[in-house]
Amino acid sequence: MAKMTDTSAHVSERDRPGSISHAAPPGTHLRQLLPSLTRLWAAGLLKLYRMRLIKVLALLELVLYFFVLLLLHSSTNERFLDRLDPHAFLQELLSLDLSYFDAAAGLLLLIAAARLVALEYSSGTIRVLLGQGIHRGTLLASQLLALLTVGLALLLGSAIISFMGGLWLLGAWGTTTGIAIIPILWPAILMAMLLGIVSIVACNLIGMSAAAIGRSMPFAMGAALGFFPADNLGTPILRVLSRLSGIQWVGQVPRFLLGPSLNHLPEVAWSGMSFSISLPQPPGNSPLLPTAITIAVWLGSLTVIATGMTLFRDVLE
After folding, report:
1. 266 neighbors 98 (Cβ within 8 angstroms)
2. CA-to-CA distance for 254 and 121, rounded, in angstroms?
3. Can you say whether the dihedral through the CA atoms of 239, 241, 245, 247 is positive or negative?
4. Whether 149 contacts 47, CB under 8 Å
5. Whole-model pTM above 0.70?
6. What DSSP element (H or E) covers 73?
7. CA 247, 252, 256, 257 torsion: positive or negative?
8. Of the listed ranges 99-103, 113-117, 144-148, 181-185, the one predicted with least confidence
9. 61-65: long-range contacts (C-beta < 8 A, 24 or more apart)?
10. Distance in angstroms (rounded) separating the CA atoms of residues 297 and 74
11. Residue 83, burial from CB neighbour count under 10 angstroms (0-12, 13-18, 19+)
């Protein structure tokens, strides 16, 4: 009787819903239980949401932007309103918003990328994830997707607030043609979004590469936040050295740096577009292609660094 009871108990436990069937191929259920790319992406979003520093910076950026709108509203005069061109104003506001996004949201994304990747190493959770059979490439891809999602959300929210703020200003100034010219501005809107995406990808890859190299929070934060200042401050230093030494190629080095190239990209991109308003056209061939190639080489190099350090470097190093 004891043997029959044990056998029936064993069978009922095996056939219970949700239990692992012995007829399944080995490892099938284990692979089903492993977090997929979607689950890792959602987990990355949750980690970013729980970072208080990210929330504080996002709130400060929003407050500062509304302050700029109120400042524009209060600093106008009748002479400005008489010469106001709604089309040119909204296009200029989009360009201004892109510059603000590169500075404010770029800082936020650098911190977010460095913290998200470095946190896996400093807390030791990457060992647990790898022990569960998760591939390093899947983990890295999920982190990049989470960061891109946050960046795109910030970019879309910034563009909507900027455009609605511009329409509000036009309405407050007594201009009623703001909504009617929206279809004309679609090329400018798409260009602003494309330039913003380039900035998002660059900031994310810089933070991820810094974290993959140092694998510690202090190093990742310091390297990520110090990249663009060193990049941009090095430009005038190299130019001075070129003038003092008489070596011409030293002054040409900033053209191949990521920071100056990203700063120069909106200028050459906007100037290459043709609107009904008058925009300055670059003389001769547009420098857009060399600038785009420089940025593409940098983004590719950062991708190789982040991927290589993650896939081929031992976790304990």
Report:
1. yes
2. 34
3. negative
4. no
5. yes
6. helix 52-74
7. positive
8. 181-185
9. 61/104, 61/105, 61/108, 62/161, 64/104, 65/100, 65/158, 65/161, 65/162, 65/165
10. 44
11. exposed
